[in-house]
């Protein structure tokens, strides 16, 4: 499977999209480069939430490997996202090109770093890594597959997945989330939320015993995408997703003008709930400069 990223990750193809080597190579040849920013943390989260799912072709019994290829320093917290993947037993290989930050590569990658971190000066030099990387990846898969894996869930159905996400008590700055927990309580929940029209997602980790949360410090009159993921020791259950818009800020009402003189006007209005200040603009009609 392959995803490209900048400020918005994009899945190019899933693990289950192609079934032969020739199909994959043809897809690589037709790949269009995606320019833009370097939100590596967002990309790793995208891979976890979108690409490493059973409906995207990720088999629960198979070893999970992520190869990160980057040519710059991340503009968000790549280490936090990488740690989430590693905590779930997903192994990360980090390959840097040109302006990649080697310290960040070492933070993101799994141990041992001498096998999982690579850095080259330019893109053509990536070809020099292919042989070694192939051998390392294959040996790691064999090594991990030979170890006994304990308590790997065989189903991602109702037993591991919450249901019935409800969004209520919506205000201009907050909304309340509730959901029904899965039959098997998770170790924790990850709440991920972001404006639907773009913007860096925010994330909250909750104890697996809770089934509600208040999102606060939101922007008024904004549509938000909300996801709730149950996290287990060896898997992430299917997430719940919802959409809700915060309310617009309340407006002052019933503007009245009184006590006019040759150089003054008195204004009065009904207060706007929650307002701490008012900005009054006036201009000479019809096209005068604003004062």
Brief characterization of the structure:
With 291 residues, the protein is an alpha+beta fold. Helices cover 20% and strands 27% of the residues. The strands form five sheets. Strands 9-8-11-12 form a four-stranded antiparallel beta sheet, with no helix packed on it. The chain has a three-stranded parallel beta sheet with strand order 3-4-5.
Q: Can you describe what's shown?
A:
With 291 residues, the protein is of the alpha+beta class. The protein has two domains: 2-147, 3-Layer(aba) Sandwich (Rossmann fold); 163-246, Sandwich (Immunoglobulin-like). Helix content is 20%, strand content 27%. The chain has six helices and 14 strands. It has helices at 21-29, 40-51, 78-87, 102-108, 113-116, 130-146; strands at 2-4, 10-13, 65-70, 91-97, 117-120, 163-168, 175-180, 188-195, 202-207, 212-215, 223-231, 240-245, 253-258, 266-270. The chain has a four-stranded antiparallel beta sheet with strand order 9-8-11-12, with no helix packed on it. Helix 2 runs parallel beside helix 3. The longest helix has 17 residues, at 130-146. The chain is elongated, with a radius of gyration of 26 Å. Residues 148-155 have low confidence and may be disordered. Keywords: Extracellular matrix, Secreted. Residues 161-250 form the Fibronectin type-III domain. Residues 1-133 form the VWFA domain. This is COKA1 protein. It is found in: Secreted, Extracellular space, Extracellular matrix.
């Amino acid at each position: 499977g392959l995803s490209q990223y900048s400020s918005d990750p994009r899945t190019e193809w899933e693990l289950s999209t192609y079934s032969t080597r020739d199909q994959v190579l043809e897809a690589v040849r037709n790949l269009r480069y995606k320019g833009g920013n370097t939100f590596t943390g967002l990309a790793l989260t995208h891979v976890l939430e979108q690409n490493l799912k059973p409906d995207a072709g990720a088999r629960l019994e198979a070893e999970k490997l992520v190869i990160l290829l980057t040519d710059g320093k991340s503009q968000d917290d790549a280490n936090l996202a990488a740690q989430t993947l590693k905590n779930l037993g997903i192994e990360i290989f980090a390959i840097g090109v040109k302006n990649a930050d080697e310290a960040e590569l070492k933070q993101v990658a799994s141990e041992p770093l001498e096998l999982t971190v690579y850095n080259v000066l330019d893109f053509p030099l990536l070809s020099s890594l292919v042989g070694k990387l192939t051998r390392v990846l294959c040996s790691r898969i064999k090594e991990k597959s030979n170890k006994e894996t304990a308590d790997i869930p065989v189903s991602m159905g109702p037993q591991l997945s919450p249901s019935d996400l409800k969004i209520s008590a919506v205000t201009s700055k907050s909304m309340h989330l509730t959901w029904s927990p899965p039959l098997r309580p998770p170790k924790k929940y990850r709440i991920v939320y972001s404006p639907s029209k773009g913007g860096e997602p925010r994330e909250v980790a909750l104890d697996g015993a809770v089934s509600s949360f208040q999102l606060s410090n939101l922007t008024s009159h904004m549509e938000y995408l909300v996801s709730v993921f149950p996290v287990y020791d060896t898997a992430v259950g299917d997430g719940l997703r919802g959409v809700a818009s915060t309310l617009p800020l309340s407006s002052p009402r019933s503007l009245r003008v009184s006590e006019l003189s040759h150089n003054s006007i008195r204004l009065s209005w009904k207060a706007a709930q929650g307002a701490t200040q008012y900005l009054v603009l006036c201009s000479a009609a019809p096209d005068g400069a604003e004062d």
